[in-house]
Amino acid sequence: MVQAFQRSRGLPITGEVDTTTWSRLVEAGWELGSRLLYLAQPLLRGDDVAELQVRLAQLGFNPGRIDGIFGPVLDEALRDFQRNCALDATGELNRSTLLELERVTATFRDRSLVTEARDAAGFNPTASGPVVVCGKSPLLQPLVSALSAMYSVDVLLDKTPEEVAAIANASDAALVLSVEQMPGVSGIHLHYWASYRSHSRQGERLASLVASAFSHQNESPRVEVTGMALPLLRETRMITLRIEHESRGDEELHSIAKVICDTILQVIHR
């Protein structure tokens, strides 16, 4: 059952209830209407928040990415909904707001999400900050060297995913790359944000472009592309790519770094 839950939540399938799995289990226990939702510190998280985001997005109000986190963008979307329904724009999902939301949701339940449409159409703003690189891998240094020729690069070492996300969000980073050499990984695994009823189309595009670029190389490594909801992918607001790879020689690592950097140039323009 633990593995099934992890698979459904885009987490590594270990069968063990680690810290991340436990926190997602707790979040899964919240249903829309079971508590008051509002912009708080720390930010409220849960399936009820994700359901609120989905319902607002179906109605054309932009709550930001469907990530189950009640942040400032969701707060403004909820206030917009309340104003449109002639309710007090408190930014709180109180009983009167919930009743109105349930009333109109019955009509629009099968509509697509405005967040998906905005992402697909490229309407979401492009961040102008640095490229943030983090992780523990011999690939990190050649990747930073290749990127530094075109971008301002911030290298974050020995930081938790939450700390990296906080720094990247505060600096309005254009891109976050998390690089790890992992035992048991065959080739290269690329992960972008995907969970609930949404995923990062731009993250998926970057991962797919990187995979395609490798496929055109001689003796290219085996590449897998998967959407996941790892903490860093969830917490960052910009395109974030998690790169996991097997042990490789220095020459191969420099070749891999060049392919990744050349592909990033197609997505992140300056």
Any descriptors?
elongated, Muramoyl-pentapeptide Carboxypeptidase, domain 1, seven-stranded mixed beta sheet, 11 helices, 2 domains, alpha/beta, 15% strand, 45% helix, Aminopeptidase, single chain
Describe the 3D structure.
With 270 residues, this protein is of the alpha/beta class. It has 11 helices and 7 strands. Helix 7 links the parallel strand 1 (131-136) and strand 2 (153-156). Helix 7 packs across helix 11 (250-267). It starts with a helix and ends with a helix.
Structure annotation, total helices: 11
What is the CATH C-level name of the largest domain? Alpha Beta
In CATH terms, the superfamily of the largest domain is: Zn-dependent exopeptidases
Radius of gyration: 20 Å
The oligomeric state is single chain
Give a brief rundown of this model.
The protein has 270 residues and is an alpha/beta fold. The protein contains eleven helices and seven strands.
SSE blueprint and pairings:
Blueprint: H1 2-8, H2 19-28, H3 47-58, H4 72-84, H5 95-108, H6 114-121, E1 131-136, H7 140-148, E2 153-156, H8 161-170, E3 175-181, E4 188-195, E5 198-199, H9 201-215, E6 223-228, H10 231-235, E7 239-245, H11 250-267
Parallel strand pairs: 1-2, 1-3, 3-7, 4-6
Antiparallel strand pairs: 4-5, 4-7
Helix pairs in contact: 7-11, 9-11
